[in-house]
Amino acid sequence: MFSAIGRIFRTPDLRRKIGFTLGIIAIYRLGSFIPAPFVNFPNVQQCLANQSDSASGLYELVNLFSGGALLQLSIFALGIMPYITASIIVQLLRVVIPHFETLHKEGQSGQGKLTQYTRYLTIFLGVLQSTTLITVAKSGALFGNQGGVCADLITAQGGTWYGMLLMVITMTAGTGLVMWMAELVTERGVGNGMSLLIFTSIAATFPGSLGAIWTAKGPEVFLLVLGVGLVIVALVVFVEQSQRRIPVQYAKRMVGRRTYGGNNTYIPIKVNMAGVVPVIFASSILYLPALIAQFNQPTTGTPAPWVLWIQQYLTKGDHPLYMLMYFLLIVGFTYFYVAITFNPEEVADNMKKYGGFIPGIRAGRPTAEYLDYVLTRVTLPGSIYLGLIALLPLIALALVGANANFPFGGASILIIVGVGLETVKQIDSQLQQRHYEGLLR
After folding, report:
1. Which residues pair with 259 in a beta bridge?
2. E strand or H helix at 255
């Protein structure tokens, strides 16, 4: 392994790409600590030091993906989350808008237009989310209505219209800059830029999460959590690499004097084809009732009964009803997202067009039905796996006093393992292109 790492840094092109990637990551982390204009930085730091685990429950996912920059009210407060949301929306719109599906099938030119639409939507969502964040910060609800310094996060100048406009422009520009840096990493660096920036944001929260366990439960529980974490990582790697391979044969064709086809291949259907998207969907849906209840919280007097019910059952992650709804939503969204992203009829038509067939299955509609049959049954264990992984931080919150961003579970472990595997594979393939022995054996 060490000799392989040495070969990476002895290869000038690969060394330059890794250095460029690390430089972009350093700039991204630096921007996460630079406060936006008119932010009362000492008060923000004091609230961060005093916050409870549930205080930022409404924003924990965005805060996780921004590496803690959201609650810092920094220039990169929104992080990469607007781009992720825009990408998911554009992908879902392919089902609703035929023009988007046509662009998707046009190849590189159509993909370029879809990417441009995603960028425009990212800026729009950046304006929307930054306005919401600033409004919530001004109302004192960002840290759970704690009052005191937490109700005074924005200075007096920031309360004026030009102050708010400048803060919105700054945070939206930060989102655009993060998107541009991620695309630069994809083009000139190693790995997928968006994924690597999310990886960096999540990895930055690991020390604080583990430190909370050490402080709350002591070194014995800390070492136990580390041991369990290593087992969880190994299991996640095993499932993420697992796939059902459907064999495909191509008939021989004569084109002029040349023979084409006749080779064998397979269609890989992963156990977890949906990735981390169902977890994001389920978290967002469960945040909506709590967000509505928070904005309907009266300044004086007793809240309405429905507000109290939501606060009791749908805002505390350690409540059994919350866990059950979270699990069921993840299972449902997994089937929904896989049905959108993998079209058995399209795959069957492409196979038939190029003379491919599954042994024992007729081409055309029977092939599509068989693929749908396999996909439905492979997705079931994948959805249950996603639901159980997503529940791990909630269980850890109840058992060992971890915070909401417990590193060995939920979206964090899925992204860390997935991005790590893909990046190592890319480095390995570039080493092999230069006639070196790769990282993987």
Report:
1. 254
2. strand 253-255
The C-alpha atoms of residue 159 and residue 157 are separated, in whole angstroms, by: 5
| CA end-to-end span of the chain | 10
Q: What is the pTM of this model?
A: 0.79
Domain map of the chain by residue range? 1-204, 205-408
Domain at 205-408: CATH code: 1.10.3370.10
pLDDT in tens, 63-90: 676 666 777 788 888 888 888 888 888 8
Q: Which residues contact 423 (CB under 8 A, 6 or more apart)?
A: 190, 191, 195, 196, 199
Dihedral pair phi/psi, residue 326, rounded to 5°: -60, -45
**Cβ(368)–Cβ(344) below 8 Å:** yes
Fold match, 1-204 / 205-408: yes
Distance in angstroms (rounded) separating the CA atoms of residues 116 and 108: 12
Give the CA distances from residue 233 to residues 169, 292, 415, in Å, rounded to whole numbers and listed in that order: 40, 36, 11
Whole-angstrom Cα distance, residue 269 to residue 256?
Answer: 35
Q: Transcribe 37-106 into DSSP letters.
A: TTB-HHHHHHHHHH--TTTTGGGHHHHHHTTTHHHHTBTTTTTTHHHHHHHHHHHHHHHH-HHHHHHHHT
Q: How do residues 277-292 score in pLDDT, each as one tens digit? A: 888 888 778 777 777 7
CATH of 1-204, one of 2.60.40.10, 1.10.10.60, 1.10.3370.10, 1.10.357.10: 1.10.3370.10
